[in-house]
Automatic annotation (TrEMBL):
<keyword id="KW-0812">Transmembrane</keyword>
<keyword id="KW-0975">Bacterial flagellum</keyword>
<keyword id="KW-0472">Membrane</keyword>
<keyword id="KW-1133">Transmembrane helix</keyword>
<feature type="transmembrane region" description="Helical">
    <location>
        <begin position="176"/>
        <end position="201"/>
    </location>
</feature>
<feature type="transmembrane region" description="Helical">
    <location>
        <begin position="213"/>
        <end position="233"/>
    </location>
</feature>
<feature type="transmembrane region" description="Helical">
    <location>
        <begin position="12"/>
        <end position="33"/>
    </location>
</feature>
<protein>
    <recommendedName>
        <fullName>Flagellar biosynthetic protein FliR</fullName>
    </recommendedName>
</protein>
<keyword id="KW-1003">Cell membrane</keyword>
<feature type="transmembrane region" description="Helical">
    <location>
        <begin position="130"/>
        <end position="152"/>
    </location>
</feature>
<dbReference type="InterPro" id="IPR006303">
    <property type="entry name" value="FliR"/>
</dbReference>
<feature type="transmembrane region" description="Helical">
    <location>
        <begin position="79"/>
        <end position="101"/>
    </location>
</feature>
<keyword id="KW-0969">Cilium</keyword>
<dbReference type="Pfam" id="PF01311">
    <property type="entry name" value="Bac_export_1"/>
</dbReference>
<keyword id="KW-0966">Cell projection</keyword>
<dbReference type="InterPro" id="IPR002010">
    <property type="entry name" value="T3SS_IM_R"/>
</dbReference>
<keyword id="KW-0282">Flagellum</keyword>
Length: 259
């Protein structure tokens, strides 16, 4: 007859439960997998299957009473660790949204908004286009597979029970500034080109006040803006690939990995 003690049952359950919590926290926030159109059932089943496969290969989990406050805190830690790992990728994806917003403001399309059911907010149409392009490019580069691999490696580099406050949290905060800086660097050529166009119409308005610059300048600015968008796509894949690589590398270093 098979006899198991309460300690053995607790350890057996913890072998699968703690990885499941971290994976679920990552899948809730991770781009594409965390989208509102992906059913929660799919994320739960994916996290459960991965936890079942990874559990026997991971270091032994800490002995924690499953009905104690320590277990609740440990669950919260694992969810937050997975959440923060996926946040690196979310910031990387939103670089493209900021890029589209900056270019829309220069083109005069800032008023053209579309409701995003995923975030519950309205964003420029151009930002939505760049967001879809960045997501598809990230998937084409197998970035989602690399990201899942980093989450799996986190169980070895940062085992369950090691805590959350020892993580380089300031490095995660600095990624917000990196997001704005990366978006600005991508949008800088188009912003400068549109600035030259606006300066040209400003000089034209001063030299020929009789011309209706507003009726002439808006469509010309729109045409030049669309031309800038077209030209931006020529070098955008290479630059965005570097941004994806930086985000994945930062995600790996966040859990103690060496570059």
């Amino acid at each position: 007859m098979l006899s198991l003690t309460s300690a053995e049952i607790t350890q057996f359950i913890g072998t699968f439960w703690w990885p499941f919590c971290r994976l679920m926290g990552a899948f809730v926030m991770m781009p594409f997998l965390g989208h509102v159109h992906i059913p929660a059932t799919v994320r739960i089943l994916l996290a459960f299957m991965m936890a079942a496969l990874l559990g026997p290969t991971l270091p032994p989990p800490p002995q924690v009473d499953p009905v104690s406050l320590a277990a609740v805190w440990l669950v919260t830690e694992q969810i937050l660790i997975g959440f923060m790992l996926a946040l690196f990728l979310t910031l990387m994806i939103h670089v493209m949204t900021l890029l589209g917003a900056m270019m829309s403001m220069q083109m005069g399309l800032a008023m053209a908004l579309v409701n995003d059911p995923g975030s519950g907010s309205s964003e420029p149409i151009l930002g939505q286009m760049f967001l879809m392009y960045g997501t598809l490019l990230f998937l084409a580069l197998d970035g989602h597979l690399v990201a899942i691999g980093v989450v799996v490696d986190s169980f070895h580099l940062w085992p369950v029970g090691q805590g959350i406050f020892a993580l380089p949290l300031m490095g995660l905060v600095e990624r917000f500034a990196w997001m704005f800086g990366a978006a600005f660097m991508l949008a800088l050529p188009a912003v400068l080109a549109m600035l030259v166009v606006n300066l040209t119409f400003g000089v034209l308005n001063r030299s020929a006040p009789s011309l209706n610059i507003f009726s002439l300048g808006f469509p010309m600015a729109m045409i030049m803006g669309l031309l800038c968008v077209l030209l931006s796509f020529s070098g955008l894949p290479t630059r965005y690939s570097d941004i994806c690589l930086q985000a994945l590398q930062s995600m790996y270093e966040f859990i103690g990995g060496t570059p």
